[in-house]
Design goal:
Distance between the termini: 14 Å
Keywords: 4Fe-4S, Cytoplasm, Disulfide bond, Iron, Iron-sulfur, Metal-binding, Methyltransferase, rRNA processing, S-adenosyl-L-methionine, Transferase, tRNA processing
Structural class: alpha/beta
Order of helices and strands: EHHHEEEEEEEHEHEHEHHEHEHE
Pfam family, one: Radical_SAM
Helix content: 25-40%
Protein name: Probable dual-specificity RNA methyltransferase RlmN
Cofactor: [4Fe-4S] cluster
GO molecular function: 4 iron, 4 sulfur cluster binding; metal ion binding; rRNA (adenine(2503)-C2-)-methyltransferase activity; rRNA binding; tRNA (adenine(37)-C2)-methyltransferase activity; tRNA binding
CATH superfamily of the largest domain: Aldolase class I
Length: 357
């Protein structure tokens, strides 16, 4: 299939770009009752309608009028893979034929959706498959929301349980698509949206200091995670070029501000690479960084990708690293790989086929 030739020519605006007030004003202009706006709004968000035809408590005449003026650019599941451990990876097709990936990570006590915020990524982290893709565009809020809806449907179908958690840890840097990410969180947590608690949502960033401060100042109730992976600038610069403009000193200042404003702990994500950041000296640097504000640390297995030569550390160093931190009172969680056999694990998300121009 020629993806470029198949890109639809859009002439109608996605109705989900309208606020409730905007929709109400438009309907009144069309001679409709204002209360119809709430009905339509609940259909497009709470009920995740993919067409106006589904809106069975809205008159046929109004449905036809909506269809004439607007579209619902619903995200579709293009392909789905199920790992040996039950993890489900989906390739989501967007209205312009671009593809992003999302993952359902099942645990006995929780079901987590990992969602993407951009098509590709501009940050070029050396250990992450998405970092080797070009950034094509930001996702809009509805496209992020739709990923959650589709993954929740998969969780219900496969495990008989709804999602318990959402992590913005898929393709892209959420803080570089801040407005749409925050709008998606607002819709996910709204009573006329999915109604999830904000404390169940985590936004992960590679470290955009000014946006960490903004997230705090904006009163966002979701949790914050920092992809740290090295607690000194020299090493972090090597694997995460964003550190050259957002140093650990700048991040320390931003994290202190975040905690002062919100009072919440931050999660530090730390992949333990063999012969790079896995010594007790590295553990000591991480321990010192953990004293900046109250935090917890997720130690993560490295998942190999085609473009990088990094390896997971050996078990002895892994255990020594864990014990070093735990013995000093640091809250440490160990994150073993899930979905590695279908390239769904941390750092492995990347669309193999070429994106449309």
């Amino acid at each position: 299939m020629n993806l470029i030739a198949d890109i639809p020519v859009l002439t109608k605006k996605d109705i989900r770009k309208l606020s409730l007030d905007d929709l109400k004003a438009w309907l009144v202009e069309q001679g409709e009752k204002a209360f119809r706006a709430k009905q339509v709004y609940e259909w497009i968000w709470k009920h995740s309608a993919q067409s106006f035809e589904e809106m069975n408590n809205v008159s046929l005449a109004l449905r036809e009028k909506l269809d004439q003026h607007f579209a619902i650019n619903a995200v579709q599941v293009a392909t789905k893979q199920i790992s040996n451990d039950g993890t489900i990876k989906s390739a989501f097709k967007l209205y312009d034929n671009n593809i992003v990936e999302g993952v359902l990570i099942p645990h006995e006590e929780r079901k987590t959706a990992c969602v993407s915020s951009q098509v590709g990524c501009s940050l070029t982290c050396k250990f992450c498959a998405t970092g080797y893709m070009d950034r094509v565009r930001n996702l809009d809020a509805a496209e992020i929301y739709d990923q959650v809806v589709r993954i929740n449907q998969q969780s219900l179908e496969q495990y008989g349980q709804p999602l318990s958690n959402i992590v913005y840890m898929g393709m892209g840097e959420p803080m570089l698509n801040y407005a749409n990410v925050m709008k998606s969180i607002e819709r996910i947590t709204a009573h006329d949206g999915l109604g999830m608690a904000a404390r169940r949502i985590t936004v992960s960033t590679a470290g955009i200091a000014k946006m960490i401060k903004k997230m705090a100042d904006d009163g966002v109730k979701a949790n914050l995670a920092l992809s740290l992976h090295a607690a000194n600038d020299e090493k972090r610069n090597q694997i995460m070029p964003i550190n050259e403009t957002n140093s650990l000193e700048a991040l320390t200042d931003a994290l202190k501000h975040f905690h002062q404003v919100t009072g919440r702990k931050v999660t530090y994500e730390y992949i333990v690479f063999q012969n790079f950041n896995d010594t007790l000296e590295d553990a000591e640097e991480l321990y010192r960084f953990s004293k900046v504000i109250p935090c917890k640390i997720n130690l993560i297995e490295y998942n190999p990708i085609e473009n990088a030569d990094y390896k997971n550390t050996d078990e002895e160093r892994w255990q020594n690293f864990i014990y070093y931190l735990a013995d000093r009172g640091v809250q440490v969680n160990v994150r073993r790989s899930r979905g590695k056999d279908i390239d769904a694990a941390c750092g492995q998300l990347a669309v193999k086929e070429k994106q449309p121009a």
